[in-house]
Amino acid sequence: MKSFLITSGLVLFTNFCVAQNNNQNAQEILNIAFKKAAKENKNVFVIFHASWCGWCKRMDKSMEDINTKNYFENNYVTIHLTVQETPQNKKLETHGADLILTKYKGEKEGLPFFVILNPKGNLLGDSFVDGSNIGCPAKEKEVNAFVALLKKSSNMADEGLKIIAKRFRENEEK
After folding, report:
1. Is the dihedral of CA 77, 92, 121, 116 positive or negative?
2. What is the arithmetic mean of pLDDT over 138-148?
3. Is 86 within 8 Å of 55 (Cβ atoms)?
4. 46 exposure class (CB count in 10 Å sphere: 0-12, 13-18, 19+)
């Protein structure tokens, strides 16, 4: 009985924490990320995504791959802002994320759309290449542009960038 009560309490606490996070607006989420990035000497990688977006899932899978995850975690505070949900999933959207997406001119560009910001909120780069959103990089030109952006906005060595490039190139084959 005691373990049941402890487990139930943990579940309720976890649900409360998740609910709190879902209630945060986009600017609050960004501010927390900026503080963490400043403390850890990293930049902020902001991914705009939606639950229905297959390429968003590929982006996450590529960044969370066992071979690439540490490179991203060691160099960026990564956050996801949910936008452009279907009518039945509007509740999943991060309040105010659409305004931030518009600020970076990504509202008509498809998903995923990403920006990299320094801890002060200054734009270091985005997912635009030749005026178009590359989304989840897959083609050689997209991956090369993505890797160049990572090199410019992180402390990653060439070895890590090659591993990331190889993993993202796998997205074209799927």
Report:
1. positive
2. 98
3. no
4. buried
